[in-house]
Structures are given as C-alpha cells and as structure tokens.
Amino acid sequence: MACVYIPVQNSEEEVRVALDQLPRDASDILDILKAEQAPLDLWLIIAREYFKQGKIEQFRQILEEGSSPEIDEYYAEVRYERIAILNALGAYYTYLGKIETKNRKIETKHREKEEHFIMATQYYNKASRIDVHEPSTWVGKGQLLLAKGEVEQASSAFKIVLDADRDNVPALLGQACAEFNRGRFSDSLELYKRALQVYPDCPGAVRLGIGLCRYKLGQFDNARLAFQRALQLDPENVEALVALAIMDLHPNEASGIRKGMQKMQRAFEIYPYCAMALNYLANHFFFTGQHFLVEQLTETALAVTNHGPTKSHSYYNLARSYHSKGDYEKSGIYYMASVKEINKPHEFIFPYYGLGQVQLKLGDFRSALSNFEKVLEIYPDNCETLKSLGHIYVQLGQIEKSQEFMKKAAKIDARDAEVFTDLGELLISSDTSAALEAFKTARTLMKKGGQEVPIEVLNNIGVLHFEKEEFELAQQVFMEALGDGIWLTLLDNKVNIYDIDASASILQYKDMQLFRLLEEGGHSVELPWNKVTVLFNLARLLEQFNNTEAASILFRVILFKYPDYIDAYLRLAAISKARNNLQLSIELVNEALKVNGKYPTALSMLGDLELKNDDWVKAKETFRAASDATDGKDSYATLSLGNWNYYAALRNEKRAPKLEATHLEKAKELYTRVLIQHTSNLYAANGAGVVLAEKGHFDVSKDIFTQVQEAASGSVFVQMADVWINLAHVYFAQGNFALAVKMYQNCLRKFYHNTDAQILLYLARTHYEAEQWQDCKKTLLRAIHLAPSNYTLRFDAGVAMQKFSASTLQKTKRTADEVRSTVAELENAVRVFSQLSAGSNLHLHGFDEKKINTHVEYCKHLLEAAKVHREAAEREEQQNRQRQEAARQVALAEEARRKAEEQKKYLLEKRKQEDEQKRVRQLEENFERVKEQWKSSTSASKRRERPENDEEEGGHSEKRRRKSGKRKKKDKSSRSRYETQEEADTMDDQDELEDEDARETTHQMDDQDDAAGENAQDLLAAAGLEDSDAEDEMAVPSSAAVRRRQALSESDDDEQLPNSIRDNTDSDGEVRDDNDKPDEDAGLDDGC
C-alpha cells in the first residue's frame, strides 16, 4: 500500500498518509500540508494521486493552493517544485481545452475552450518567470500549442528544448508529434526513433507513433511490425489493435476482412468505448445489411467521443444507414452533422457526396451542386461525381456544362455504358452525330459486357438515324429493338389472304376484325408496352418511305392493343390529309379528342384542318381551345393563333386599313408572347418579322429574318424555306433586286430542287422589276414547264415578251438582230395572248377578255412597227457591212505593204550582217598570216645574226654589243626573210594590188590595209603575244608596197627604223615603256 509521510514541523515525527485512502475533502489534507509546511513535492504527489483516482476537483484544488501567492512567498527559494506545480496546472487546463463537453451549444464549447487555453497559458508563463530555461515548461507550452493547432509555434517550443538537450525525450516526442501533424512523416519517424534510442524502455505508445509514420509513408510491412511490437509491450493496446485491423481490411479481401473484424471485435471487448473500433464495426454491419447494429454502434461511438473526425465518421455511418432505407430526411440531417464535424473537406469527403445525393433526390439542386463540386476538388476524376454534376446542370438548364461533365466522365471511364447513354441523351438536341456515336458506344459496351441492350437505347439510335435521313439503318435498328412479333407477319405480306386494302384500313380503323382474324389464324397479336414507341417510330419511317399502307396497318395495330394512344389517331389523320381527304382527317382528329378533349396537339391539328377547309371561325375557336388547354404555354397553339390573325389581315378583300392593322397587331402580340416563353423559337421570330415587313419596317424585319436564317441553317431538325422567301421579299421591297434574285435562287436549289413554280413566279417578278425581260421570260417558261395548267404564268410570259419588245423599239440605237428578236418575241406574245383569248374559262382564272384583246392589239401594233424598223435596220446593216468590207480591204492592202517593207528591211539587215562577218573573217585571216610570218622570220634572223655580230663587234664592250645586237639581228632576219620568200611575196602582192585596183581606189585600199594592221595589232596585244620583235614588226608598214621597198634596199630599211624602237628594245627582246618619247613615236604607234 503506497503512502507518503509528511514531516511534523519542529519534530522528528511524521504524518503518514495512505494514497489510496485520501480524504474526499481535499481541505483536510491541505490543512495538514499548510500547517506542517510540507515540501512542495509532497503537494504534487498527492495532487497526482487525486488525478489518478479521477478526483479532478481535489487535484485542481491542491495545485491551485500550492501555486497561491502565499505559497510562492513562503517557498520562494524552491524553484523546481513550484515550476512543476504550475506546469501540472497548465497541462490540466490544456487537457480541458482539448476535450469538449456534451450537450452544450457550439458557441459555449468554443468559449470554454478558449478560456481553458488562456488559463493554461497563464500558468506556463508564470512558470517561465521563475525559470525561463526550464525544459519542462517549454515542453508544456509546446503541447498547449499543439492542442490549439498552432503546429509551427509548437515546433519552435520543442526546438528550444532540443537545442539545449538533444536527448530530451518529452521534447523529442513532442517534436515528432508536431512533424507528423505538419505532414513530415519522415522527420517524425526519425524523432520517434531517436527517442527510442535514448530511452529504450519507452511505452508502447512510442511504437504506435512509429507505426503510424511508416503507414503514412507507405511502409506497410514495417508499420505492421511496429503495431505488433506495441501489442507485445501492451497486449491490450486498443489503438494498435485497431491499426492492425484497418491494415487487414485495407486490401478488401475476404480473409483480410475476417482477420480485421476479429481484431476490431477484440478491441471492442478490451475497451467497448473505443470510438474508432465502433465506427469500423458499424461500417462492417452496414455492408451486411444489419442496420439496427449500425445505429446502436454509431450512437455509442457518438456518446463516448468528442473527437471531431471520429464523430464525423459516426454520423456518416448513421446517415448511410438511413439513406439506404430511403429515409432521406434523417439521412440528410446526419450527413449535415458529419460535415459540421470536419474542418476541411479533404479530411473526410464522403459525407459531402452522400449529402449531395440526398439533396439531389430532394430537388435542392443548388446545395447538391455545391457539395458535389467539393467532392470534385478532392477527386477530380471521379466518374460518379461527374455524372451527378451532369444531371444537376441538366435540371438547372445549363446543358453545355452538363455535356462538358459527361464528356469528361466518358473520357475517364470509357467502359461505362451508362455514361455514354446519359451523354447521348444530352447531345440529342444539339449534336445528333455525337449523340448517335454515344448511343452506339453504349450499345457496344453493353454487348461486350453480356448485358441486354435496353429498348430505349435502340429506339434512340433508330430515331437519330431517321433524323439524319439514314432510313435503312433506322429500319434495321427499329427491327432489332422490336424483335419477333405480329409486325413481322404484317410487313412480310403474309396476310394477303385477308384482302387488306390500305384505304379501307383507314376508313374502317374502328373495325378490328382484321386482327381478330389474325388471332384466329394462329398469329399472336401481342404488343408489349415498352415496344409501342418503337413500333410507332417504325410506322413513321414507313410513312417517310411513302409506304402508307404498311404504316397505316401498324398504327391500327397500336390502336387495337392500346385504343387510347392518341398519336396513332393523329398519324392516320395526317395520312388522310396527305390524300386530300380533309373530312376524314377531321373525323380522325375528333376520335383522338374523344380520348383527351384537351390534347393540345390534336386541337392544333384540328385548327389547321379547319383553316384549310376555309372554316375561319371554327379554326380560331379551336386554336383558342388549344392555347387554353395549356394555360397559354403551348407555343404551337399560340403561333397558330398568330398565323390566323396574319392571314385574316391579308384575306380582307376590301383591305380595310383599321381591321388590317388590328389583325397585324394581334399577330405581333401573339408572336412576341411565344418569343418571351421560348426565345429560340424560330417560327415565332419569323412571324414577327413578317408582321414588321407588312408594316414597312424592312430594316428591322431583314435583321430578324437573317438571324432566323442563320439559326435554322445550324440545325438539321429545322428546314425553314419560308424565312429565305421572306428575306428575298424584303430585298425586293427595298429595290435590291440582285440580292432578291440570289435569295430566290438559293431557296429553290436548297429546298425545292429548282422545281417550285410559285418561287419561280417570285423570281420572274423580280427580274421584271429589274427590267431584265429575257431573264423574266426564261424563268416563266421554267414555271410553265412545271405547271402547264397555270394560265397566269402564260399571261405573265406574254407581258414579259411585250415589255421586252417595247423597250427594244424605244432604244435610239438598236441592231438588226435586236429588231429581229423583237419581231419574234412579238409574234410569240400575240400567239400567247390569242390562245388565252380563245379560252372558254377565262373568268375562272381571273382574266378579263377585253384586257387580253387589248394586249393582242397592242402587240400587233408593235409588230407592224417592228417590221418597219427591221427593214430599216437590215438596210443599215447591209450598208455597214459594205463599209466594213471596204475598210477591211484597205486594211489588208496596208498590212501587205507593211509586211513587204519589213521583209525588205530584214533582207538588207541580213546582207549587212553577212558582209560584216565576211570582213571580220578576212581580218582574222590576215592577222593569222602576219603572225605566222613574224614568227618564222624572227627565228631565222636570230640564227644568222649571231656569228656576224661576234666578228664585227668583238672589240667593243659588252654593253655596245647588247645595244647593237638587236638591230643587226633584225637586219639579218629581214634580209633572210625577204631573200627566201621574196618571189612568193612579190607574186602575192601583185595579185592583191590587181584585185584591190579592180574593186576600189588606191586610197580605199590604203585605208583598209591600215585598218587591218590596227585590228591585227589589237588582236595580238589582246592575246598577250606582244614582245620586242613584235614591236619591230609593228614599226614596219603593213602595206604590200612598203614591203617591196624594204626588199629592194636593205640598208635604207635600217636607216628608216625609228630610233624610238631601237632605244626601247633591249637585248632580251622585251619592249619597254617610255612615256618621255617624242611625238613622232606616238605618231608611229598611231599609224600602226
């Protein structure tokens, strides 16, 4: 039995206090401690014992008394014990701040929590004033900061202790906890390991911390070892058991789940109030469907814990239980409670998803949207969340955003057929091609997964093929959706024995004898409800194929099995209307109205039929009934009323302005009402534009028609030829005939394949107003070809030909061809008007016989005048032709003269070029001959001159020999050359002189020789062959006469050589330049 001894003051006796028998009233023990002035460590021991026994008030009372000012003054010198008491009080209030009191309002809890933290801070600060460096105080402050969530400041407090003592175990554990909360699991693990190294006998909680760090780091095997070690140290460590159980449950395998639940059960048995174990047990029983256990366990968990995340899990389990049972009100409350226990969504996101589901189910789309978006922030690729958001945006009318989320979901999980089905339904109204591909993908995925493709999906695929005019594919899909049934027998014509007649099948639609006969014949006339829509669509497809017989029989099959199927009546009525049997069509619509007298579509159709039947009063009442049936929300009925008022304004034969204006204003009001309800209704916008155009507001109506045209062009479901025609009418009214013509032509090509006589009439009128008479006539002839019984077109064609003829005859200048064409047109016009005049039913076509006769007479008058003009034009044309022929002959003569001059000039130029080429060739030949002669004479003279120079000049100096050697060499060379070739050269010179004398004068010969010498010298210099011998040769006159004189007198030739040449010639045979020579040398050079 543990006890403490309190020394008696001024005595050796002691007061023995048994710790397990502490008085209930702490005042008794306090009196003893004060009276005996017991050491403060005894105060702390007794206070701690009270705390262990759960006597928190006595614990607090002793510590607060031990930290009073009187005690501080008396024990002023006792520092450590005073600090320990203050730190104990600080830890106590920190503990109070972490826990929460039940059955208190949130505001009260928060206020009390803050008050406790303030008290703890005050005690720690008081302890720091005693000794600012006390490690235990800083550890306490760190724990307080952790409890307050101020992790960074807590880490700084622990760091102060560790800087002074790196092996302080409490500081190491506190810092490890701080790092764990900061997400630095590696650093936390290292700190736990250091603490374990410093103090190997640490309790199992340290191993638990190590296990949690390794679990967060993904080191599951090591984490398991750490948890198991914690269990070895403390076999009843509930936290370790729960951690191991969670790890067993994590793989989601049967064996692991069994082991995990066994550990959870053991933890529950050790400590039935472990909230985490209770939550996991509740989660297990939720999936086993034992909802009563789920509720009991979660309620217990909520009663024993004040930890926010744990309570959030408990509320979530409870909410799921009610959610699965369909109690959306309670489940929503508990989901909301779970969310409130979470500080941030990423801590526990599942209750947000559950709450969003419940809110979506209850129709609170905005709140559901907010919660699902929070889930998407944490899990951006979660397909279920993306699909939920897609559905929410559909409900909110934001189709584009819905499509965006569905496309993303389909991209993430390309094997989810449901996603593609939802995506296809969203895309039907905006992108039929993409919708079709989505449905096809869904069908493929279902077939691959072995699932049966729903009839709805096949029906949607067939409808989309139908809308894209892929009728054969649509029929295949419809037949696939229908499977086997009576429709196969009917479509395969296996019932011809009953003599079914198509028209009779419509007239006798109430007679079901046919199908009774089929049943008696062994055919099963069964039609499941989920196939009615598909069979109806197949009948519509056959109707599109113009196979109205088969279509009408299928509609009757539907009526045989489901007599209240109104749309089948309406389609039979449409078939009758197409056959111009308006009365039968009206009767069929009335049969539909017997099923539902306020069916808007039937009423609107009846109004249209009555309007076509020219029953205006009934039509108006029917349209009003259709509008009233939907409280004015049926756009078609309102549009029909607007059309009625518009037609009434135009139908008034007297054209009463007031009545017309009233009807137009009413039509405008109705069109505007539809646009307010449906801003994208193209037909209402078109009607409003028509009314504005009738009122003369052409610019505004043109803008409206243009916008409607652009919108209709972007949709495959809308084919609005009227807006093209109306836009063309506006251009026509504004006088912009070119654009009007273009618009009419585009409308004809785009919608009517150029085969609509009425639009051709509009086009012809435009050409007429633009005074394009021939285009007008051609257009009318095309219209007559399409509607040969329309006499109005013939009359208009005659008027166009008459107008063309008159305009041609009014021209001041016209050709004979134009006049002849005018005569032909007038003859045709007379023929057309005469044919019309001869008709017996003119009044039925709105013609006046007198007016037609007037046209005939006028055209005949024009024809007579045209013939006169034709004769005059032909005479003028003949004269013009003669003048043109004369002018042509003159032009031909002039051209011949010009060509002759050009030929003569060409021949002269060619002859001149030939003479020039011949002269150049002669000069080149002379140059080559001179060059060859020079080379041969130079080599011979050098061989003869050397011995003579040695004999004659032997006594002179070497310099003298060099100066005179060249001249002597030249002389000998010249004599030798003339001696060996004198006779041949003389003969050649004589021949040349005779030829030259015969052709031209002596003066001309000298000029040509001089020019030849110059050309030869120039060519030689250009060739780079110029040397001393060449210079000497240049000094010799080039004419034949000079060469003869040189041959007769060799000494005279030596004297006549220019000094300049001798001076400029060295013994080496090179010619040197000397710019200071006399003018006579320049003259010689020029002469050469």
TrEMBL record:
Residues 870-894, 928-1088 are annotated as: Disordered. Keywords: Repeat, TPR repeat. The keyword Manganese does not apply. Pfam families: TPR_16, TPR_19, TPR_8. GO terms for molecular function: RNA polymerase II complex binding. Residues 958-972 have a biased composition (Basic residues). The keyword Repeat applies. This is RNA polymerase-associated protein CTR9-like protein. It comes from Dipteronia dyeriana.
